[in-house]
Specification:
The protein is of the alpha/beta class. The protein is built from ten helices and eight strands. It is 39% helix and 15% strand. Strands 1-2-3-4-5-6-7-8 form an eight-stranded parallel β-barrel, surrounded by five helices. The protein binds 2-phosphoglycolic acid (PGA).
């Protein structure tokens, strides 16, 4: 039998990406109102918009988004293809519901579910094998930043993913999410974020044989007020939005900021 292709991502272009991460929030009723409002408000925008929803709601949101350009994402994916892994959801299952993205290595999973750099790399590989774009999260804790270890930490986290997926690294999306900025209301300043994005950009360039620009999103208390200044930075291609993605008006303002920022360089 032929070996399964190890990466068949759809590839990104220079459009910006605004991805909502609902985390463990939502209900059938609330999702419907939120998705309908987002779809209505994003009509005509020239950027990619996705919502990464809890697995039980993939089918619901797949139906709600039909005919629109809203894309669907998951918040995690199993590193395994199938079998005795109770509670896990495979990339092939996600694919059956039209899932375009899967967040991997979110700091909440690294912290509460003991996900190692190697495990995150394997999850990215499993997603790529099914044509799902992994949104690979990296980021330092406050202690690491204060110990001047930011660069070392994010490079180590990304290096693990490059090591396992080097040949199809241009198919991934990276999200820089400083742990101290997630859900805290403390955002990295545009300059702080840009500094790390530039480091990640250089690392990706060195690893990628293709000339395509790999999207690097910023995440961590991104909101309607700070989105434009973050997106104005040369290496910030979009956002991974937690809290603000649960309110249609806030999420739409971030989408509008990305639309106004135009294509990435
Ligand atoms: P936040 O979350 O926007 O609520 O800080 C971002 C994330 O964790 O992806």
């Amino acid at each position: 039998m032929w070996a399964r292709l190890s990466c068949r991502g759809e590839g990104m272009n220079r459009k910006r990406l605004i991805a909502g991460n609902w985390k463990m929030n939502g209900s059938v009723v609330a999702n419907e109102a939120l998705v309908r409002a987002v779809i209505a408000g994003m009509e005509g925008v020239n950027c990619r918009v996705a919502v990464c929803v809890p697995a039980p709601y993939l089918a619901q949101v797949q139906q709600l988004r039909a005919g629109s350009s809203l894309e669907l994402g998951a918040q995690d994916v199993s590193a395994h293809a199938q079998g005795a892994y109770t509670g896990e959801v495979s990339a092939a299952m996600l694919r059956e519901f039209g899932t375009r993205y899967a967040i991997v290595g979110h700091s909440e999973r690294r912290q509460y579910h003991a996900e190692s750099d190697a495990m995150v790399a394997d999850k990215a590989k499993a997603a790529l094998a099914e044509g799902i774009t992994p949104i690979v999260c990296v980021g330092e804790t406050l202690a690491e930043r204060e110990g001047s270890r930011t660069e070392e930490v994010v490079k180590r986290q990304l290096a693990a993913v490059i090591h396992v997926n080097g040949h199809c690294i241009s198919e991934i999306v990276v999200a820089y999410e400083p742990v101290w900025a997630i859900g805290t209301g403390k955002t990295a300043t545009p300059e702080q974020a840009q500094q790390v994005h530039a480091v990640l950009r250089a690392q990706l360039r060195a690893a990628s044989t293709r000339d395509s620009r790999i999207a690097i999103l910023y995440g961590g208390s991104m909101n309607a007020a700070n989105a434009a200044s973050l997106l104005a930075q040369p290496d910030i291609d979009g956002g991974l939005i937690g809290g603000a993605s649960l309110k249609a008006a806030d999420f739409l303002q971030i989408i509008a900021a990305a639309d106004q920022a135009g294509a990435t360089p």
